[in-house]
Amino acid sequence: MTRPQMNFTASSSSAAGPTEFLAVLIVGFGEELRPLTSNTVDEPSPKALLPIANKPLISFPLTWLEEAGVTDVLLLCPESHANAISNYLSSDASSSAFPTLAITTHTFPDAYRTDPSKGSCTVLKEFANKITTDFIILPCDLVPPPSLPLSALLDKFRMDTDGLILASLFHEVPSDRASLVPGDPLEDPPVVLYDPTTETLLQINDDGSDDPEGEVDVRMATLWSHPRARLTTHLSDAHVYVCRRAVLDTLSAHRFQSIRADFVPWLVEIQHRPQRRKQWQHVLGAMPRAARATLEHSTSHMLHARNVAVGGGRSEPSSRAASPLGGGVRDGETHDGSLRCAIVVHALSKGVAVRVNNLTALMDANRAALATASFTPSADTAGVDSKAQIAATGVLIGASTRIAERSTVKQSSIGAHCTIGKNVRINSSVIMDHCVIKDGAKIEGCILGARTCVGEKAQLTQCFTQPGYEVAADETLKGEKLDRLDEAWGGDEEDEEDDEDDEE
Amino acid sequence: MPPKAAKAKEVEDVQEEQDVLQALILADSFNERFKPLTTGLPRCLVPVCNAPLLDWTFESLALAGVQEIFVLCRSHTDQVQEAIRKSRWSQPGSGIKIAPIVTQDNVFSVGAAMRDVYAHQVIKSDFVLVMGDVVSSVRIDEVVREHKARRKTNKDALMSIIVKEAGASHRTRPRGETSVFVLDSDTAEVLHYEGVAAVPETTRVSIPREKLKGHRNVDIRNDLIDCGIDVCAAEVLSLFQDEFDWQDMRRHFVRGVLTSDLLMKNIYCHVAREGYAARVKDTKSYAAISKDVLARWAFPLVPDGNHPGGQHYEHLRGHRYISQDKQVTLSRTCKVGNNTLVGGGSRIDDSADVAASVLGADCVVGKGTTVRDSYLWDGVQLGAGCFVEHSIIASGVKILDGTRIGKGCLIGSGVVVGPNTVINPFSRVSSEPPEDDDAEDAATALGPGSKGYLWPETGDDDVDDDFESEANLRYLRIGADNYSDEEHSDDESTASTFSSPASSVLSLPESNTSGQLSTPGLALLGDGSSRAVEFESEAQLSLERAYNEGHRIEDAAIELKTLRMSSNVEQRQVLNAVVGFIVDKIELVEGNVPQQKAVINKIVQRWGPLLNSLGAGDGEETVELLQKHCSRPKYPPLFAHVLSAFYMTDVVGEDDIMAWYKDPKSKEGDDESKAAYARECWKWGGQLAQHLAAQESDDDEEDDDSE
Q: Which pLDDT value is given to residue B397?
């Protein structure tokens, strides 16, 4: 892919010095978002372009990067998605949206979708040679709240001087989450162990969620260096990692598949495992020169301060002054880098961060975004009949969409170029571009993929459709994932086969 | 709310207010960590800064506003009762009622004691349960209030454990016995408890996933000092009654309650941020707490202000405390260091040096004696020129002149030690023979004028409880390293591997090298040459043993390497010892060259590889050492044979021999008197070298690199 032309702001800022961070934006296939991302015969359905309040998903991380002053983006996406995504990126609307970003796109084969041995690590490893600086791994599906700037994470990484290898972002998830998709329980967040005082990530247990009777093992070695650790089941990994370049060199240690589920938990444990530490010390241990120089000139050594904080106790005075045993300098970690991983915790009270990696999350993100939206008739929405009832708030309607008389739209977003007939009721739904909804249909709590066609008087509740799906007239469906492929996606198989026949 | 009910509630409240706060002191340790100090003295009366431990505990409870105290005691009950009678808190007008509960002798655990208390039916409501070894200034009354408030809303809140926030490696958290608490971050409910021992090392804490349910955040705390103070509901006693196998308060009761599927009771923690609290659980924490009291961390529990024993001390600069009750005699030239307490009537003689220690009443420290980090109870007499460090010496002990007490010693009351004797570190000495009755002969171990028995090192680990095993208790002894990495190779393990009496006397200061200590081979600290001599003799012993017992090469090598580390000598020294050993082991067979060769080959084939496995040996150096050892009458002819045997077994390479031969220094050797022999060796070696050189021209070039 070719690099879009950089404009003057971008080049002037990069002229100031070498790039500090390269953003590596990995776009997945969106398996969990089927059927919305099921490929159709003629066209792929990229996850990156699913709408959140009529804006493509990928625009959120890109805006986030732009706000933090990151200029270089390496976009890794499936081969078949590349065209659609680059069309979006180079379309008029978006080049003005991300003027400072220099986006380079690389692709990986679509075959990875079905090959379980190929994960995000495979992709990262493949393009490791394109990464020459410290880098940020981020997903295409993160919708961060305004209260959570990327710079908070970058600053955490920048300010640390004791040999940090990675800074990660975790966001609190509400405890009363419920799945909006029948038969699709939400995945529990991992059990995360971290030290709130030093903001060090200590352990991620992601494996045992299927075994509620199991145990969480915490190594004593960890507790000796971090005597006050916190275990939580309410933090979810935002999949945003700021890493040292050297981290890429450890990718060869194992056959890692997923960055989040395999690689990062492995990295996190290096700091506490003497053997692993010894093995990777020379790879990871080298402190960046700037940090070292800063340290040499500082009077109150950060390393020292950390040790006091870790081992010396806080309010207990005797450990600090009288006790010679106060320090946590048990393994000589002051000399080498600590190889630790930092954690930034985003509290729920400051705003909800969502990773749109399942249908419920997509729905939630849309609802949250719609809460602040308001519908005002304009030239773009001239096709909306004046007799249609459009709620004043919580509704978004795309350009040149037509809505006929006596239709009602509430708490929903409707994409561009849709045709909606008479007497249609749309409530709490997301309708993507080019959908056709015939007269008298009723749609509630649904997400309709692009080009979905709903027949007359059909009733859909909590349904999700593959792009281009056609719902027959008078059909009543509830809690279905409607997919044209001959595959069972949780829903009733027979129904789908029937549908298929109809379509052929 | 109808007025009647409100009134009733009010009455109830008033009644609750009027409830006397009861405390139960378990004044027995149910273990033997202080033996032999506690053979004639109950553990709760061990003096801490010259006041019995029990008084410190009373003091702590009085601070908390406790009105009624029951003291449960088992051993030496008469002494405990006497102490209670004498305590100022049992005087009329103190506002506290103290009553002893005497249990049977067959009560061997906390659990059994609790069942016994239950049988006495004295505890009526919520009470404070305290181990009889607590020194604390934590406001227990606040915890009691908190506990009662919690009980009002949650009847299942069984107990509040008071813990003190500290660091992971705080000195009152000795490595051998710490604990990890898993608490709910918001409510401080205890979700999981794990006792942590040093041996067998606790490597992980396993938290059941189901415990995490319903708790957003859970703190795993490895930085808490368990103060041994629990505010309990009366129900606790009856639970002990129901569960007969519960012995320990924490590892059985707390874990039992937490893991029980039937009880559904909750235990909470109160994390004290203010105040001081710690338990004298073992000799190590005894030392730590004494130091804390002296350094005023336990304020207001300090010797000068509020001494529980009712004594008066003057607080001088540098935390020195001198008794004001009875004249203390300090010589003009003596030195009293920081953090030291000197009891009434004590005398410190000329140029004696006492630092970071506690002296009881009427102690005598003789001329030129040094006392470091030690605790001398009443009436201890130290002779002249003694050295005592990191030890506890019970009342009435006499240490005669020139005696050195290694760190970690516990000397029971009435013992006499010395003169001019070295007591190994971590020894235990009592006036009564220990139970096993295979004590070492007193006179040799403890000195000619001694009276007492040296306890054997009990190697048997047949204790049920891991925490009481010998290996784990090692970490709980006074003087034991807490968290350093070297602890696995402390004096003792070295001494047991190389059972030589010399190893424990290594660090004698210069002033003490009098009398029998001037034996050659006993070294002064930091003196390189004598260290080498020391090493030589040790290495000799080690090699002899290896030879006689037919050790494997690897084992012998490890032993030598360890020895090298511990004596800190050069690699060359080790090689020297081994080469010397090999040469010495060769029997001389005069006039029979083939047989002589066979003897040599046998020895070298067996022991030559040892030189290789010691590693990093320079071949040339080996040849040179061999030359040195062969530089004596009758040996030079052997030199060539041994050298060729070395060559055959790949101990030295051809290059090494050539290099040695070409070195001009080799011709003379380094000893004038043996120059003639050295030259003869060189000549023999030269023949071999030439032979090899001749061979080389036939051989492949590659052979050169084979070494």
A: 92
Of B661, B640, B653, B657, the C-alpha closest to B703 is B653
Q: Is the dihedral of CA B698, B702, B705, B706 positive or negative?
A: negative
Q: Name which of A68-77, A453-462, B195-204, B468-477 the model is least confident about.
A: B468-477
pLDDT at A498: 40
Structural domains in chain B plus CATH codes: 19-279 (3.90.550.10), 313-455+487-525 (2.160.10.10), 528-699 (1.25.40.180)
pLDDT value of residue A311:
38
Helix residue ranges, H only, A256-390: 264-270, 274-284, 289-297, 302-311, 317-320, 359-370
Interface of A with B in 256-285 (CB under 8 A): none
With the C-alpha atoms ordered B434, B439, B441, B445, is the resulting torsion angle positive or negative? negative
pLDDT over threshold 80, residue B161: yes
Query: What number of CA atoms fall less than 13 Å from residue A289's CA on the CB side?
Result: 0
Which residues in chain A have Cβ-Cβ distances shorter than 8 Å to B292? Answer: 318, 322
Closest in A175, A224, A326 to B216, CB measured: A175
Helix (H, G, I), strand (E, B) or coil at A77: strand
pLDDT tens digits along B121-135: 888 888 999 988 888
B532 burial level (CB within 10 Å; 0-12, 13-18, 19+): middle
Instruction: Give the Cα-Cα-Cα angle A141, A143, A144 (nearest 5 degrees).
Output: 135
Tally the C-alpha atoms within 13 A of residue B269's C-alpha that lie toward its C-beta.
29
pLDDT, tens digit, 9 for 90 and up, residues B306-327 = 788 888 999 999 899 999 888 8
Nearest to B28 by CA among B18, B38, B19: B38
Q: What is the mean pLDDT of chain A?
A: 78
pLDDT above 70 (res A211): no
Tokens of B450: 């001694």
Q: Which of A223, A308, A314 to mutate to test the interface with B (most CBs of B within 10 A)?
A: A223
Return the pLDDT at B367. 92
CB contact under 8 A, B295 and A327: no
Burial class from Cβ neighbours inside 10 Å (0-12, 13-18, 19+) for residue A72 reads buried
Choose the closest CB to B167 out of A217, A227, A232: A227
User: Which structure tokens are listed for B642?
Assistant: 């041994």
Consecutive H or E run containing A62: helix A59-67
How many whole angstroms from its chain centre is CA B351?
A: 30
pLDDT of residue B486: 35
Of the candidates B94, B97, B113, the residue with the CA atom closest to the CA atom of residue B105: B113
Our CA-based measurement puts residue A56 at a distance from the nearest CA of chain B, in whole angstroms, of: 33
Lowest mean pLDDT among A450-459, B64-73, B288-297, B533-542: B533-542
pLDDT of residue B437: 55
Round to whole Å and give the CA distance between A170 and A238: 5
Is A197 an 8 Å CB contact of chain B?
no
Distance from CA of B137 to the nearest CA of A (A): 13
Which domains are delineated in chain A? 4-281+344-355 (3.90.550.10), 374-486 (2.160.10.10)
Q: Report whether A454 contacts A435 (CB < 8 A).
A: yes
Q: Which segments of B537-646 are extended strands (E)?
A: none
Q: What does the pLDDT look like over B231-263, one tens digit per residue?
A: 998 888 888 888 878 888 888 888 888 888 777
